[in-house]
Structure formats: structure tokens, C-alpha cells
């Protein structure tokens, strides 16, 4: 524990800025501080693995912020690889083979076809690295396409992956499956104001092809209903009914009543007025003759009721659908 405290004190003294506060340090100073933090965390993970693991992970994560500088610093790239393998060794020593394999996979994915000297790693870690390399090679490769509308430089996992000349040009990269960090920045002096694009991508299939563009297209402005002075809403054209509602309803009601009346006339056809047996000619000299009228009323009423009902249902359904879509209004923008 005493060694850990001493290392922490050394780190604080080493990383402390020489003038002003941390905001005044140059990017080079910050990069040197991040590199020193990785070196100190590597020392600590060998003396106190329990606390050293978290510090080394944090130091490695901080180093990702300096892709352009790290890509031109082979010594620190080698240091980064050894630090990741030291982290895997500590995880393996703890008995967490899954975590160690995951750390090694991330290292090999970022190295690509760059070899690792496994003979320097010890038998257990060296064997696991070879095992994970074979697994990674069996997965195959995916493709990343970087398209730039300005001259740009591409970094993948903090390694220089090539330049793009500008509009109409692109960089095609074959990458191992897994997660990768991509950094794209402008290299033309006229585009120094453009912020770099930093992306984390995941390639999951050997036939996958992912495309990144730089600069990124600006997202469409969000619709702000409160800005009534800038965006005015208007309803679309009102739906025209087939006929006025009262006409449709009246046609349906009258048609239905005609059907009922026709049914009554058909029911009393050939019957006596007072319910007398129609075969008794003395008591029932005349019978109702309403068959023709009944058939006519039923036919006309059914047709009228059907027409009125269909018109009413169609118009009401369309009006209801119109109301349900009133939020999908057309809008105009005034400047």
C-alpha cells in the first residue's frame, strides 16, 4: 500500500502543470501527461494489481483523445500495446479469463496485421494471445468507407489509415471484426475550423460495409411549436362530403321506414280487415290487396336506406380519419 501511495504522489507531481492552470497547457503537454499516466499505471499494476487495473484502464482511455499525436509516436503506440497486455495479464492472474480475452481482443483488433511478440509475454498470456488471434482471423474482415467533402486524414484505433483528397474521393479500409475508434480531421489550411469527427464503430459481419462521411451533415431542425412567429401552421383543404349529413341521415331513415311499411303491407295481403277468416265470403266480402304496394315499398326503401347508410358511413369514417391526422399538417417557414 505504501508503494501505491508513493506512485500516486509521483504521478501528481509529474502531471502538475508548470505554469497557470490545466486549461493553459498546450495539447503537447496534455499528451505527455497522458503518456506519463500510462507509464505510472503500468508500474502500479505490477505492484498492486487490484487498484492498478482501474487506473490503467482510465489512463488508456485518456490516451484515445490524442489520435493524431499518438499515430506519429511509435514508442507510445508500443507502450500502449504493452499496457493493454499488462492489463490482460492482471485479469488473467485474478482468474477472470473472460475479461482477459476481451482485453486481448480489443488489442488485436486495433493492431490489425501488426504482430505481437508473444515470447515476451510469458506462457499463459502468450498462449491466450495466440488463441485469440486465431479466433480473430477466423472471423474475417469487414470494410469501412470514409467519404470526405474536404481533404481529410483518417485514423483508426489511433493509427494513420490514409488520407482522402476531397469531394469524389474516399478511403476503403479492411478491418477486423469488432470495435474500432475512428478519427477524421481536415488537413487543408482553409478548413482548420472544422472539428474532427470521432466515432466508435462496431463491425459484426464479414460482409458488412460501413460508410462514414466528413463533415457530418447537419441534422434537420427540430419542429418547435412555440415559435409561432417563425413557423405558421395551416390546415389542409377540408374534406368535401358526398352529401350533407342531414340528407344522408334522412335518406337512411325514410328508406328504413319504407321497408317497414312494405313489410306490413305484405303481411296483411289477402287478409280480411277485421281478422275474419278470408275463406268465409259472407263475413269477409273483401280482402286486402297490398302485395304489389308492399313489394314496391320494400324495394324502394331498401335501396334508399342502403344508399343513405353507405354515404353516411363513408363520410363519417373519412371525417374521423381526417381528425386523426390533423396533427400531420403542412407547415411553412418564414424568414
Automatic annotation (TrEMBL):
**Transmembrane region(s):** 293-314
First and last residue of the signal peptide: 1-22
| Keyword field | Membrane, Signal, Transmembrane, Transmembrane helix
Official protein name in the record: PEGA domain-containing protein
Amino acid at each position: 500500500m505504501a508503494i501505491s501511495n508513493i506512485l500516486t504522489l509521483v504521478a501528481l507531481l509529474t502531471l502538475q502543470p508548470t505554469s497557470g492552470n490545466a486549461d493553459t497547457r498546450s495539447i503537447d503537454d496534455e499528451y505527455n501527461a497522458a503518456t506519463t499516466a500510462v507509464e505510472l499505471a503500468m508500474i502500479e499494476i505490477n505492484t498492486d494489481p487490484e487498484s492498478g487495473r482501474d487506473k490503467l484502464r482510465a489512463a488508456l482511455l485518456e490516451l484515445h483523445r490524442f489520435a493524431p499525436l499518438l499515430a506519429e509516436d511509435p514508442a507510445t503506440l508500443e507502450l500502449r500495446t504493452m499496457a493493454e497486455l499488462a492489463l490482460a495479464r492482471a485479469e488473467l492472474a485474478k482468474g477472470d479469463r473472460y475479461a482477459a480475452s476481451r482485453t486481448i481482443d480489443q488489442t488485436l483488433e486495433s493492431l490489425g496485421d501488426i504482430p505481437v511478440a508473444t515470447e515476451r509475454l510469458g506462457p499463459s498470456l502468450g498462449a491466450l494471445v495466440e488463441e485469440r488471434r486465431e479466433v480473430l482471423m477466423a472471423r474475417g474482415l469487414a470494410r469501412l468507407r470514409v467519404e470526405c467533402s474536404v481533404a481529410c486524414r483518417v485514423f483508426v484505433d489511433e493509427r494513420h489509415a490514409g488520407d482522402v483528397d476531397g469531394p469524389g474521393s474516399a478511403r476503403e479500409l479492411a478491418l477486423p471484426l469488432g470495435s474500432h475508434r475512428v478519427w477524421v480531421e481536415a488537413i487543408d489550411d482553409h478548413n482548420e475550423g472544422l472539428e474532427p469527427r470521432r466515432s466508435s464503430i462496431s463491425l459484426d459481419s464479414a460482409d458488412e460495409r460501413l460508410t462514414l462521411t466528413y463533415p457530418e451533415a447537419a441534422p434537420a431542425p427540430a419542429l418547435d411549436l412555440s415559435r409561432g412567429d417563425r413557423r405558421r401552421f395551416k390546415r389542409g383543404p377540408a374534406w368535401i362530403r358526398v352529401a350533407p349529413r342531414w340528407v344522408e341521415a334522412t335518406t337512411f331513415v325514410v328508406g328504413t321506414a319504407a321497408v317497414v311499411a312494405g313489410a306490413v303491407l305484405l303481411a296483411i295481403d289477402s287478409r280480411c280487415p277485421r281478422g275474419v277468416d278470408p275463406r268465409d265470403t259472407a263475413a269477409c266480402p273483401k280482402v286486402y290487396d297490398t302485395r304489389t304496394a308492399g313489394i314496391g315499398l320494400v324495394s324502394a326503401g331498401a335501396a334508399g336506406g342502403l344508399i343513405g347508410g353507405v354515404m353516411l358511413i363513408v363520410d363519417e369514417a373519412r371525417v374521423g380519419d381526417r381528425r386523426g391526422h390533423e396533427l400531420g399538417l403542412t407547415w411553412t417557414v418564414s424568414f
